[in-house]
Amino acid sequence: MRIVSLLPSATEICFALGAGEDVVGVTFECDYPAAARARRIVSTTALPEGLTPGEIDAVVRRKVAAGEDLYHLDAGALRELEPDVVITQDLCAVCAIDVTDVDEALAYLGCSAEVVSTDPHNLIEVLESIETIGKAIGRDATQLVDSLRTRLGMLAGGGGRVALLEWTDPPFAPGHWLPEMVTLAGGVNVLGAAGERSKAINWREVAAAKPEVVVSAPCGFGLDGATELTELLMGELPAGIPVWAVDANGYFARPGPRLVDGVEVLAAILQGKAPDPAIARRVR
After folding, report:
1. Disulfide: which of 85, 87, 96, 262 matches 10 by Cβ 3.0-4.6 Å?
2. Residue-wise pLDDT tens digits, 87-126
3. What range does the domain containing 258 cover?
4. Cis upstream peptide for 33 (omega within 30°)
């Protein structure tokens, strides 16, 4: 089988299910596991490099409003790879190339690949999407999904009002599975709603939520980048409470197996334990 994955999370899932050798095409963002970087890139970003979070937000809003693409699909590479399965998404225009664009490209190329689209809005649906991908690529996902469910069931409550930020300029209240991650970790989520879209808010709303801890998880940023952005927020955040930065790119933003690691990190923070230093760093 020849698989083209247009989602970093789907790439991780394919490798986790033992189908890494079958993955022949990926996106420019597919960096985990490391072996994924050796696959041919078929999708790249349309955004300029070196933008600040505020500039990224402005460019994305402008392009979406104008109906412009945020990603470029290399149709030539797609044709040459001759995939049997193409995995994409229909959840977020900002996250990856849209399933409609993929369908149109395959039709234009005369490619008969099966298109598998995932659309998880919460953790249950994330686990179901792992099973869906497993069926599509001929791999049994039962053991992996059961192990993830078991780990989630072992978490002890930690308590505390948590303001998790999905973006920093402007601040975004989290959506989809992120509020649920806070709840499963034992916290009280005070911004955003589980299963809903993330939304822009202001710093007054963050303060009014009366958080006892702030977790900064800017979408697409690793731990170092998140730390740098979070350090810039000290004048905006409520005083006298802990502030943490996390590797949002690897453990919070991508709907794959490592979300469970993210929940475990949140639980450690709320329980006053030392979280994995490769995933979380205290900024204040």
Report:
1. 87
2. 987 655 555 565 666 656 566 455 778 888 888 999 999 9
3. 156-282
4. yes
